[in-house]
Amino acid sequence: MSRIAGLRDRLGIAYGGDYNPEQWPDEVHEEDLRLMKEAGVSLVSVGIFSWASVEPRPGEYDFGWLDRVMDRLAGGGVAACLATMTASPPPWLTTRHPEMITVRADGSAISPGGRQHYCPSSPVYRSHAVRLAERIATRYADHPALAIWHVNNEYGNVIPCHCDVSAAAFRRWLADRYGSVEGLNDAWSTRFWAQGYSAFEEVLPPRSPAPFANPAHALDYARFTSDELLACYLAEKEVLTRVTPDVPVTTNFPPSLRPVDQWAWAPHVDVIGYDAYPDPLDADAVPKVAFSYDVMRSLRGGQPWLLMEQAPGAVNWRRRNAAKPRGAMRLWSWQAVAHGADAVMFFQWRQSRGGAEKFHSAMVPHGGPSTRIFGEVRELGRELAASRFLAGARAPRADVAMVLDWPSWWALEGQARPSAEVRFLDAAWSCHRPLYDAGVACDVVRPDADLSGYRLVVVPNLYLTSEEAGRGLTRYVEEGGTLVMSFFSGIVDPYDRVHLGGYPAPFRRMLGLAVEEFHPLAEDASVGLSLGSGTLWSEEVRLEGAEAVERFTTGALAGEPAVTRHRFGRGEAWYLATRPDPAAMRVLFDRVREAAGVGPVLPGLPDGVQARARETEEGRCYIVLNHGAAAVDVPLPTPMREELAGAGPAASVRLEPSGVAVLRPG
Ligand code: GLA
Ligand code: GLA
């Protein structure tokens, strides 16, 4: 905790971006520092892809340029989030050791020449990575610029490796997990299709089995991949904490959330880092990223996290890469702070001249400091520097928790399911959105979390459920909680074997129903409900104590239950047998949460206005964001001061389109 407190005291709300000085000559570095000061930059992530620049030939180091960069940063009062530089192994290493290059599931190897082309199980890669981390750690341990370590980069974006080295590591991982090959055969249901193994040596990575991979095999490979990447992270972290015990260590989780089990990683990441790239062309980008931010805040129980990367304008890796509309950069940055971020960082500081990311926006664009983007960067830097009082402030615990489990996510999206269109993130977004639109805060929890403090627990598509998690959720309702569960939950155990006894066996008693058969809908089809329509999925539900709140009004299941409610113990469990359209979801969620006594962060928020709270030493502070296109007046429950404009206590605050208010008790 003290390592984090030190960081907060030093940086306030940290501001800056990825800094890649090796792409530029010395004169530019001088200008960099001048412009960083002008922009209020307090932290830069240095050298994330610098391996080949600090070790141009095997064992031959060139730290001179980096020494000068670090000295300059220290002289200018800019702190370094110093990278271990291990995300892109240099050509000399892959040429000498082609066996460390990632092999895709189809057997083809990734060609070096991009980045992140390493096999996480490769002892060669690991030893070189650890050696480099140690070099960097010892060289800069006492450097005044050093504030925090940035291990590797976006581990989750490494393509899962299927090479022979990975195969051997996978077998060891399986032997550890199952003890015996009989245990493996049982867990993987290998009597099916004559897959029984006589020894661990026979097991391969799920390269491209036809017609389908064994789903338990594929699921374990996803677990194994997450664990191997974590082992790479831990190997580097061990070096860093040994050499610099007082310097916090982070790594940046990539935007998609899915690839690694972040519950397993979070205890080892001193402060969570996240890269967010909401697509300006996606009308739902803002509510979607709000969910990601809720995940990040929740990973370490509400501890502030770092927005490690975002784009000041456009990215360059989508098919169409739109610039952010005027004001969006500021508004979306504040959105992260509203959701508990203690840093607003960008990819990258200075827009590259060459290379694959030269059309990715940057804080200093090709057009230089006279551009609109740099003007907005400077303005935001000023605001954040004036908002130090927010740093370290935690969000109050929400009344609502949403359950998220990575193995369940991976298993849900495996092959040969009732519908390949059922995807976890869509389910999570569809349940998060009605809360978001109603201005209600939401935490994210693991399925086996202690839920007793929450008034409402939302369970989207928890396809895979351990017996223990099933009991925990059931107990939560029994003891008076309100729970909403969406379809295709509680179907399989941690080995992707069906829980027998009627779907969803672990939750049947709690929900007061049984599901007889799945009826996924055709693409773009819907089925009638009295509230609107159901999409994606429908299923045949037999009531066993629950009441039907909604019934299907059209289709094969007309007249059958579509949404149910069951009083169970002292609580209440709701079940969605389809995905109601967004308007219907809003009506249902409003009903459920009002009955559960869950209200918005601030009452009376106009449509399109979002508010989140953080507990500062001087009391609860609200960050209010106008995502709408019109100016609005936001009523306040008690008079508050607005910090950004420096306005005295008032009973309401006016927000222009894309406007932001930071409110403190008057
Ligand atoms: C084919 C195969 C069966 C089974 C069915 C499933 O007919 O012969 O083993 O896989 O498909 O539809
Ligand atoms: C990721 C990476 C960065 C950069 C950005 C571009 O987040 O971590 O190195 O490539 O994407 O959007």
From TrEMBL:
<dbReference type="InterPro" id="IPR013780">
    <property type="entry name" value="Glyco_hydro_b"/>
</dbReference>
<keyword id="KW-0326">Glycosidase</keyword>
<feature type="domain" description="Beta-galactosidase C-terminal">
    <location>
        <begin position="608"/>
        <end position="664"/>
    </location>
</feature>
<dbReference type="InterPro" id="IPR017853">
    <property type="entry name" value="GH"/>
</dbReference>
<dbReference type="InterPro" id="IPR003476">
    <property type="entry name" value="Glyco_hydro_42"/>
</dbReference>
<dbReference type="Pfam" id="PF08533">
    <property type="entry name" value="Glyco_hydro_42C"/>
</dbReference>
<comment type="similarity">
    <text>Belongs to the glycosyl hydrolase 42 family.</text>
</comment>
<dbReference type="Pfam" id="PF08532">
    <property type="entry name" value="Glyco_hydro_42M"/>
</dbReference>
<dbReference type="InterPro" id="IPR013738">
    <property type="entry name" value="Beta_galactosidase_Trimer"/>
</dbReference>
<dbReference type="InterPro" id="IPR013529">
    <property type="entry name" value="Glyco_hydro_42_N"/>
</dbReference>
<protein>
    <recommendedName>
        <fullName>Beta-galactosidase</fullName>
        <ecNumber>3.2.1.23</ecNumber>
    </recommendedName>
</protein>
<dbReference type="InterPro" id="IPR013739">
    <property type="entry name" value="Beta_galactosidase_C"/>
</dbReference>
<dbReference type="InterPro" id="IPR029062">
    <property type="entry name" value="Class_I_gatase-like"/>
</dbReference>
<keyword id="KW-0378">Hydrolase</keyword>
<feature type="domain" description="Glycoside hydrolase family 42 N-terminal">
    <location>
        <begin position="18"/>
        <end position="385"/>
    </location>
</feature>
<dbReference type="GO" id="GO:0004565">
    <property type="term" value="F:beta-galactosidase activity"/>
</dbReference>
<feature type="domain" description="Beta-galactosidase trimerisation">
    <location>
        <begin position="398"/>
        <end position="598"/>
    </location>
</feature>
<dbReference type="Pfam" id="PF02449">
    <property type="entry name" value="Glyco_hydro_42"/>
</dbReference>
